[in-house]
């Protein structure tokens, strides 16, 4: 079933893998991802030296680290994008169970690195955040369950996927990591909507999410502190949000100049969660708009290509990954300009971070694999034939 996909490119028996991949992959999205990674390295050169000096490392220690993990992420992305949807599904489901086991073990073996949330396993030479790898795996498994429920006498896959999503959210809330929980629920909701969910049910689930947020606010000091900071009419200039907001305002349209920014000396997370503030201060609104356009290219082009998809699994999984990718970028930049509460979320392929880079490479590799052109005919062709 997963091999019934769209496209008008004729199959060429015996064609080597690389030429076939290059002929069928979405090159606009691929180019946008490579540009985002290049921008991340450029911004890392500006944002990382102050933190490296503070921690006693050489000036470009974090830039080299980002290049290593980024190279691994791009390698994984290219390899995954060459796989068939069936193989992607199998590896995605396997990866989900491995990541879920890691998530379940965090309360016992995890660490918070002094940030108040137990989200990582410390490996001595680095750390791993299971929730980053859980997201693409959950999207693939959830899409598979929903697609199975559309078959005659199929299992109640939509219900199973909802139960699974709620279990994951419960584990994430224990850390606490409400940002990743929002992404998981959003990804499930998008797939459920595309699968034909009743609007009233989605509204009910949104109401339940608001109720859960209220309970979390009343019982979690970590969550309440961030909400209170967001709702406060005044911004403390000595907080990360205060520094980031001021830097964005100082940058103006063209920025203060390469290397001339000051926010990187004040923000401890300038190279990760608030990298967009460094971009806005040194390069101005021009670079920020260009970054936004690159995320829009990947998200919108993928959704348009998936609209033609015949196979429900590919359509659902691809839509979930594309929307998660776009939403994570929106949340990161929205936090920096104080449109959203602080989430502690990286900017995909731009922020420094091992787990987020490699997991992002896996997710985008899956998306590129799902949106490749294949020779079985487009959805519009099938609809036209059915109307005759």
Characterize the structure shown:
- Strand 1 and strand 2 (127-128) form a beta hairpin.
- Residues 1-10 have low confidence and may be disordered.
- By secondary structure, the protein is mostly helical.
- It has one domain.
- Helix 2 (27-54) packs antiparallel against helix 3 (61-81), helix 2 runs antiparallel to helix 11 (275-306) and helix 7 runs antiparallel to helix 12.
- It has helices spanning 17-24, 27-54, 61-81, 85-109, 130-149, 157-174, 178-194, 199-219, 221-231, 240-251, 275-306, 312-336, 354-370, 379-387, and strands spanning 121-122, 127-128.
- Strands 1-2 form a two-stranded antiparallel sheet.
Topology at a glance:
Elements: H1 17-24, H2 27-54, H3 61-81, H4 85-109, E1 121-122, E2 127-128, H5 130-149, H6 157-174, H7 178-194, H8 199-219, H9 221-231, H10 240-251, H11 275-306, H12 312-336, H13 354-370, H14 379-387
Helix pairs in contact: 2-3, 2-11, 3-13, 4-5, 4-6, 5-6, 5-7, 5-12, 5-13, 6-7, 7-12, 8-9, 10-11, 11-12, 12-13
């Amino acid at each position: 079933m997963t091999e019934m996909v769209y496209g008008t490119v004729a199959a060429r028996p015996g064609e080597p893998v690389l030429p076939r991949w290059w002929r069928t992959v979405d090159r606009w999205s691929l180019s946008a991802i490579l540009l985002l990674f290049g921008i991340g390295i450029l911004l890392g050169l500006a944002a990382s030296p102050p933190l490296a000096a503070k921690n006693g490392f050489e000036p470009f220690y974090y830039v080299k680290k980002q290049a290593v993990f980024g190279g691994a992420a791009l390698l994984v992305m290219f390899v995954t994008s060459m796989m068939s949807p069936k193989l992607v599904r199998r590896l995605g489901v396997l990866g989900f169970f491995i990541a879920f086991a890691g998530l379940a073990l965090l309360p016992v073996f995890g660490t918070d690195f002094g940030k108040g949330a137990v989200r990582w396993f410390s490996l001595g030479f680095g750390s791993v955040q299971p929730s980053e790898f859980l997201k693409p795996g959950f999207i693939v498994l959830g899409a598979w369950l929903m697609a199975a429920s559309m078959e005659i006498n199929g299992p109640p896959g939509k219900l199973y996927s909802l139960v699974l999503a709620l279990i994951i959210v419960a584990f994430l809330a224990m850390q606490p990591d409400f940002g990743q929980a929002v992404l998981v629920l959003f990804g499930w909701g998008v797939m459920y909507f595309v699968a034909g969910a009743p609007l009233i049910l989605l509204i009910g689930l949104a109401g339940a999410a608001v109720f859960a947020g209220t309970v979390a606010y009343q019982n979690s000091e970590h969550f309440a502190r961030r909400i209170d900071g967001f709702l406060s009419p005044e911004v403390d200039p000595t907080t990360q949000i205060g520094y980031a907001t001021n830097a964005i305002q100082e940058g103006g349209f063209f920025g203060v100049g390469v290397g001339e920014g000051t926010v990187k000396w004040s923000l401890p997370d300038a190279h990760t969660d608030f990298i967009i503030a460094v971009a806005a201060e040194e390069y101005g609104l021009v670079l920020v708009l260009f970054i936004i356009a690159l995320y829009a290219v990947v998200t919108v082009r993928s959704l348009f290509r998936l609209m033609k998809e015949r196979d429900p699994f590919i359509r659902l999984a691809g839509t979930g990954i594309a929307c998660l990718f776009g939403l994570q970028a929106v949340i990161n930049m929205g936090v920096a300009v104080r449109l959203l509460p602080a989430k502690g979320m990286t900017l995909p392929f731009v922020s420094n971070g091992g787990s987020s880079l490699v997991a992002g490479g896996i997710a985008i590799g899956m998306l590129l694999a799902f949106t490749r052109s294949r020779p079985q005919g487009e959805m519009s062709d099938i609809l036209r034939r059915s109307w005759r």
